[in-house]
Every structure is written in structure tokens, then in C-alpha cells.
From TrEMBL:
Annotated gene: Cyld_0
PANTHER family, sorted: 40S RIBOSOMAL PROTEIN S3A
Protein name: CYLD hydrolase
Record-linked InterPro entries: Papain-like_cys_pep_sf, USP_CS
UniProt keyword terms in alphabetical order: Cytoplasm, Hydrolase
Lineage of the organism: Eukaryota, Metazoa, Chordata, Craniata, Vertebrata
Length: 227
């Protein structure tokens, strides 16, 4: 365990600490979904560090301590987290009766995020979405759903998010403080895309509800939107 607090890894430090053998979060008993989610959320960004420190109304301080001291801090300090540390977290989620199979079964990352953010820590939803003028929906992450499109061979995240929102007639009600995106699902037998290029910046202008947009012809504020 590492009692100190370490900042997220950036630039050269990230390469130095995270590259090489025995780096990342060690997998064990179908933990890949949780390992990947935790690495993405905490290794190189501090956006969700409130999960590690703030006493939220429903916050389970024991789970919060395990997440901070046994997983995030060792990852940022040494670039490696033992499988036993992740199993400790999984056991706590199981012991509290929230899900009996968290120690051995593979789960959807969204299920894990909803559990730990909502039920364990009591964090307010990160996203507010609206579909076709219907009632707002609160959620913690957005999973990309879309049909196979032949013109997208090696897409980037920007393209996938825009097309997914368009096909589902979705809009962001407000700018999110953190936008967690789950890529399209795939299995051993089928992969929708062989690879996806990360977008280092994400332009959500066209995804925002009632947001002023620039006309693609004249450059002035647009009054109509082509669908």
C-alpha cells in the first residue's frame, strides 16, 4: 500500500513509468473490464480524483481507501498494480451484497462504473442526455452503439461519437465535467473495427443541445441544421 497521494502521470513521466514489462494493472479471474476502466480513469488524468478524496453523501470510505491507496497511488507511483489489490476491491463490492459475482465473472464496464460511482461513492451523474426532445436521462458514461458502416475502416473517436449521437438522435443537455466513452463492443469472433484511433481532443459543439453553430457556407451563426 502507498499512503501518500501521487499526481497523474503526464508526458515523459508517463512513458518512463508505464512502459515496459510488469506495467499496468495485473489481470486475474476475468478482471480485464475493471482493469481497463481503472487504468483509463486514473493513470494519466485527475478529472475524477474527487472519487478518491471527497466524502460524498453515500460514500463508502473503506472502498474509497482501497481504490486510492491500493490501486491508484501504486499505479501512478510505480506503474504497476497487483491483481490482489484489484481482488480486494472486488471482494468489498461482493461482501456488501451488491453483486455476488464480482470476484469471478466478467462484467460490462458500465455496470462497474454505475456501481462504484452511484451506489458505493454516491457521485452525481456525469452526463445529461436527451433523445428526440424526450425527458433528460442521467448517466455516468456513454457507450457507442452503431451499425457497421463501410466507409469507416479505421475511425477515430470523434467520428464514432458523432455518428452514434446522430443515429440515436441524442444531444448533450450541458457540457459534461467528464465524458467517459465506451467504444463499440466486440468479441473473439467479430470485431466491428480492427483498430480505433484515439482523438486527443473531442469537439462536442454539434452534440450540444441548442448550441449556436457556425454555417459551413458563410461562417455566420447558423439558423438551420441539415440532418
Amino acid at each position: 500500500q502507498t499512503p501518500e497521494s501521487f499526481p497523474p502521470l503526464r508526458n515523459e513521466a508517463a512513458v518512463r513509468v508505464l512502459r515496459g514489462q510488469m506495467k499496468g494493472i495485473q489481470g486475474h479471474c476475468n478482471s480485464c473490464y475493471m482493469d481497463a476502466a481503472l487504468f483509463s480513469l486514473f493513470s494519466c488524468t485527475s478529472v475524477l480524483d474527487s472519487m478518491l478524496f471527497m466524502p460524498f453523501p453515500l460514500c463508502d470510505r473503506n472502498v474509497q481507501g482501497i481504490l486510492r491507496d491500493e490501486i491508484v497511488n501504486p499505479l501512478r507511483r510505480a506503474g504497476f498494480v497487483r491483481a490482489s489489490s484489484v481482488m480486494h476491491l472486488r471482494e468489498q463490492l461482493t461482501d456488501k451484497g451488491r453483486c455476488s459475482s464480482f470476484t469471478n465473472a466478467e462484467k460490462d464496464p458500465e455496470e462497474f462504473l454505475n456501481l462504484i460511482m452511484q451506489q458505493v461513492l454516491g457521485i452525481e451523474p456525469l452526463l445529461k442526455l436527451q433523445s428526440g426532445g424526450q425527458k433528460e436521462q442521467d448517466c455516468y458514461c456513454y457507450q457507442i452503439f452503431m451499425d457497421k458502416q463501410e466507409d469507416l475502416v479505421v475511425p477515430d473517436v470523434q467520428q464514432l461519437v458523432e455518428r452514434s449521437f446522430l443515429s440515436s438522435d441524442l444531444k448533450l443537455v450541458e457540457i459534461p465535467s467528464c465524458f467517459i466513452i465506451q467504444m463499440p463492443r466486440f468479441g473473439k469472433e467479430y470485431k466491428m473495427f480492427s483498430k480505433i484511433i484515439p482523438s486527443l481532443e473531442l469537439d462536442i459543439t454539434d452534440l450540444l443541445l441548442d448550441s449556436p453553430r457556425e454555417c459551413c457556407l458563410c461562417g455566420d451563426v447558423a439558423t438551420l441544421e441539415c440532418c
